[in-house]
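Blinded run. Sample ID left blank on purpose so nobody reads anything into the name before looking at the predicted structure. Input follows.
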Amino acid sequence: MDLLAHLEAYVATADESSFSRAADRLGIAQPLLSRRIKTLEDHFGGSLFDRSRRQIATTELGVLLLPYARDVLDRAQRLRQVARSARRSRVCAVGVPADCSPAALARALRAGAEHGITLGMRELPPLERVSGLADGALGYALVRVPPEGAAYRVPLGLASAPVPEGGESGAARRTVHLEELRPRRGRAAGPGAPPPVLLLAEDQVPCFDDRLYRAAARAGLPESRIRPAGPGATALAETLAGSALLLCAEPFARQHGARWRPLADPALHRGYDVSAAPVRDRAGAVPDWLATLLAAAVGAAPVRRGGPGPGPGPGDEDVRARLAARG
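Blinded prediction complete.
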């Protein structure tokens, strides 16, 4: 027996003093309501309604049990409301890179609240964001993908020590080619050698570092000049001190007072998709407002399809140049 459905039939009949009106109120057929009342009477061992008159009346047993029936239905309704509220207010974890704009993430948090979703931002490396989506630890995440297939792209460049006031030239914004970082003959080491290029954890992913090393080989830049960075603060300290160049996005460099020049090769852009965990209640879909705000947090712009490609892919490798770069 569905106790709640049977109690609803009992309470509605007591309120309406009519089987037909009670059935209309509940949106069920009158014979079904009558069967539920009869089943409930058998369960309690007595009649709940006197049917001997033209208008049914509630019996003494029916009057005695009515407040308790109402209490059970009220509690069940409150239980359903609490469950709905808990589903709306549960925290949905979102995996984001470590170099996101705090102000942009704050806008995403506020937008989530307006849409009835409590978002919880979690700074994670790229591979952990992917695994978090797979195991359900994350609801949404910014995922690194090759730039040519990405929904959003972030141009990368090289951050360096700030130029003294008045020393910035008009060519400061010109693009930089990897060929410019090759050590000159006789200056592979020592004070005159170009500083190393540091890679943040965000760029230490197969879809990026493979093509970076290939591009470096084509440019004649030794692999030893490119090395993974430690914590972001340490990498920034080396960069601002002038002992390293940091591969990063422009907003991150400007935020910390570093000089920044964009890389000329668009194949070395960061590519991002905003993905959702494959759960049934979201069916893997990402709300447009959330995707837009998360992309803005990393300084990404939507990719315009049908335009020119991002440049040579990871397969366009000059083997002889790579071997020469290795000495």
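Unblinding after everyone has recorded impressions. The two ends are 82 Å apart (CA to CA).
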